[in-house]
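Lab channel / #folding
Pinned by the channel admin:
"Please post every new chain as: sequence first, then the structure tokens as a reply. Keep commentary short and put observations after the output so the thread stays searchable."

First post following the new format, from NK:
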Amino acid sequence: MKRNLFNVKTLAVLALTSGLLFSCSNDDSPLDPGKVPGENEDGRWITVAAARMGENLGDGNGGTLIYSISSKDAKDPNVSIEPFDNGFIVPSNRTARLQSSEDGSTIFNISYAGDTGGNYTKYTVNGGQDFEQTGSEISIAPYVGSAPRWIKLFDRDQTGAAVYVNTENQFNDNGTPDDESDDFYERTEATMGIVTLDLQNSAIKEFKESSLRLSDELEAQGYYIGRIDMPTLNAAGDKLYIGARISKVNPETGERDRDAETLESKTIVLDYPSLENPTVITSQVGKGNTNGYRSINSFLVNGSVYQANQGDPNGSHILKIDANNDYDNSYVFNLDEALGVEDAYILAWRPTASGKAVVAYRHAGSTEGVAGAQGYFALVDLEAKTAQKINEIPYSENFYLFQYQGFVVDGDEVYVTEAPVGENGNIYIIDTQTGKVTKGAELVNVEGSHFIGVF
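Reply from TO:
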């Protein structure tokens, strides 16, 4: 028999600018006065994130709801939770960009787009739909806009970093597109902005803008850094790595060149905490983007930073940046070769401290479902450079992982969610040392919606 978990709440309805009705919660019964907020005697909190459908199946644009259970209940297949009906609505016009503390007791959020876009809030996790806002709210929109790309640095929950890049084509006086001159285009100026945020005290720490340059040769061909994301702090704590996507314009027309050759993967390196002196390093192993999408794309493991790339014509690689703040080109880990597939594309991933990792991916053999290409999970060993598909998790053609954001790492165990768009699913727990997979709590879905991970 399933045990349905929910807190008895009265939902107060709020109208947001998107026209959707959102709800917040009031307790019908007070918390145990002897219990410390965020404390959980049945293991760490596991917070499930659910993305409601907007206008299209699986678009996730209808808002984000979260619901927390203990790790003990998360491992129990007899437990059933309904985040879409009983969850806490996270303030965000579209899919929220969530982060959690290392122990799962705190959720950090910066609203994405809309009137509240750029607002930072944090919540103590009390179980179920009970998320108690703590500290003051602060807006980073004046620094990086109302739809910021941000991440929590791995510095024991102290700092968040948000980034943006603005681009502007520059022209000389020798010609214009109208006179068909082939030398009117000079380069594209890419201006990076980065702000660091004190997560504990809700305060801006530092803000800097810098010009991002590629080589003169590449810039003359129309290449530039068009998107950045996923700042990662190195082991020494003195450099920040920021993933980059390289774009290109046609110098003859000044228009975007969408058929451009894919360049070697690149990463921006700058001083920390000053955020000064940006340089660009280049991999000789992988090609394509390193900025990821909505999930953290690079991680510090055993003194080095391991980074996934996307859009590599030879399939996604996991790249390595060593303590000298440059790519280790002797480290070659290609997911196509490791999995025996073609066009592997790492959608999201998370390693444990031991270097074992769980990777969400798609490939050329993925079926096209209602919201996009079918996704899969693999167990990866960063040291051995091996990967194997996790077959114990069921895969539907509508299992959509492009928007996947969150994994929970608890020692050697990694928690993930599995549910096709609009269908029920489960939490799964992977023991990365033994490969054992445990089917956990049931996730009750609603039409057109999906789950984007656990925190």
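NK: The first helix runs from residue 71 to 74.
TO: also worth noting, The two ends are 27 Å apart (CA to CA).
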